[in-house]
Fold this sequence. Notes:
The chain has helices at 8-15, 19-27, 44-57, 67-71; strands at residues 5-7, 33-36, 39-43. By secondary structure, it is of the alpha+beta class.
Amino acid sequence: xxxxxVTTRDAAxxxxxxxxxxxxxxxxxxxxxxxxxxxxxIERAALLAYVEAQRALGNQKHNPWREGLIQQGxxxxxxx
Length: 80
């Protein structure tokens, strides 16, 4: 295993997320990971940074109009 990386299952346990959610985070580039064969190895530091950022957002993480999402082209704009 690569230094500083964890398996998808270990990442899910560490972050309190489902395995499928962790895979989506890696496939969309939100969390860094490496595909080795058919398995993903997730960068532990990137995963923990994502979890901390989500905790810091609190209930705002559910707001589709928040500025961070709009800047990424993923949120909703008020002028539509």
